[in-house]
């Protein structure tokens, strides 16, 4: 169905795999479209309760495919970001379902931004991260200027973006860029196991939690408190909330349905 990615669903977990391994899964306009399309399908499929995002081959994603730039093709960078990259980041962060990324190899430029826009990040011990933008005379984009200082602090964000040094998965874990590092061969299994675990939890509450955090990061405390009250009112209406309460009172394991 797709040329540059694959989308597979197994029970409640959908897996998107970037699939241009010979180009280290570099982004093209078609990949932008296909990713947004896959995420839109996932958004509308109530059976899907968690997502895994990974790359095929030895890389996770090398960012923008530089071949087009190399050929001297005239590119409208503003349009490329607004129409190509930004909708992907908006889709990932706006999706009210948990997204686990399995960073299976190097992530560069917008490839790092893509990983940062996912909710939980599992990296292979062979993975690495490079804010490659500076090496091609560009500003970090696709959300990196927003995510990086929030995740690693301003000082480290400046260092990573200005020097563009490639850091290992262990270093990425140490600075707070990712959640865990696992042996290379197990990265997809570990990410899928995490996604499967998340898919068994109250999906609506998790989706609203994600929304609350993103809103909270750009709001005052008063606004965040108001927002929590509003989202809690919605969570309290869900089947899973009632199931959670019943299970607690009946001293049994809850059977959440994601609704
Ligand atoms: O339009 C815009 O530019 C605006 C949007 C910008 C968003 C961005 O993402 S800007 C940043 C773009 N990405 C980069 O600058 C990263 C470029 N790649 C690298 O720095 C390195 O390839 C890596 C650090 C990712 C991996 O290094 P390494 O040594 O493991 O692999 P390699 O030998 O450099 O690459 C292997 C092949 O993949 C090679 O092709 P070949 O020689 O085997 O035919 C290389 O050219 C190709 N490749 C790697 N990255 C890209 C790429 N081809 C096209 N585009 C790439 N981004």
UniProtKB/TrEMBL annotation:
Superkingdom of origin: Bacteria
Which Pfam families does the record match to this protein? ECH_1
Q: Which InterPro entries match?
A: ClpP/crotonase-like_dom_sf, Enoyl-CoA_hyd/isom_CS, Enoyl-CoA_hydra/iso, Enoyl-CoA_hydra_C
Q: Which family does it belong to?
A: Belongs to the enoyl-CoA hydratase/isomerase family.
Instruction: Tell me the protein's name.
Output: Enoyl-CoA hydratase-related protein
What organism is listed for this UniProt entry? Alicyclobacillus dauci
The top of its lineage is: Bacteria, Bacillati, Bacillota, Bacilli, Bacillales
